[in-house]
Write a sequence for this structure.
């Protein structure tokens, strides 16, 4: 989700089994990735202080240091999701302005609801950022040392074709050797949105959205199930 990269997660729980379940849930979710997992809260503090982290999953009741004490120590905090088996900590957790609170044992559906909320906020924040002054991208051509200069405003959508991508522009189509994920990172998030594993669209070219498809020009493109919720949030 654009979110051009997956959200980078740190998982902290002093119970190895609970930590394993949390990691499995993160790995199962296509817009998340585990950057660091530990049973030691001090290791987590050190990692968060020295790395870019999007979501910190934090157990509250741990030996040596509680999750709330971890929050007291951290100056710069990512999005926080607290996990605990003790319901009485819920109110205290919200006093720390955490993003969500998962009561153990929690289901994958409940986990997904929590992380989708954070992902949607991330997308909206990206779109609200001021537009980048760069108005074009250079695309490698089919000849050695040949590059095409393509204006963002000319691009309708980009289609993934295995190890290649095809730029569908106003007056031409250009195929280049490129990875969709890497390309998504290079494009300005306020202009381009990935609606499907095979399609990135120019938001300014949308004519209509109906059901599970988007119309750009005379072309209707499908909206992937895992992208739809965040995409529809744009219109709210």
């Amino acid at each position: 989700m654009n979110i051009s990269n997956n959200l980078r997660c740190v998982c902290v729980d002093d119970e190895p089994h609970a930590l394993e379940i949390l990691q499995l849930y993160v790995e199962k979710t296509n817009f998340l990735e585990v950057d660091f997992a530990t049973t030691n809260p001090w290791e987590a503090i050190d990692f968060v202080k020295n790395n870019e982290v999007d979501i910190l999953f934090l157990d509250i009741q741990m030996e040596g240091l509680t999750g709330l004490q971890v929050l007291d120590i951290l100056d710069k905090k990512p999005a926080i999701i607290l996990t605990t088996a003790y319901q009485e900590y819920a109110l205290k957790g919200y006093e720390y302005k955490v993003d969500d609170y998962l009561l153990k044992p929690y289901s994958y559906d409940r986990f997904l609801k929590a992380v989708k909320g954070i992902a949607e906020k991330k997308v909206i924040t990206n779109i609200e950022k001021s537009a980048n002054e760069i108005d074009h991208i250079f695309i490698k051509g089919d000849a050695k040392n040949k590059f095409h200069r393509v204006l963002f405003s000319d691009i309708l959508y980009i289609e993934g074709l295995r190890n290649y991508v095809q730029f569908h522009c106003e007056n031409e189509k250009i195929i280049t050797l490129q990875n969709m994920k890497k390309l998504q990172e290079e494009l300005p998030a306020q202009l381009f949105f990935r609606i499907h594993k095979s399609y990135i669209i120019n938001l300014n070219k949308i004519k209509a959205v109906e059901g599970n498809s988007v119309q750009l020009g005379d072309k209707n493109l499908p909206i992937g199930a895992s992208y739809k919720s965040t995409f529809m949030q744009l219109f709210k």
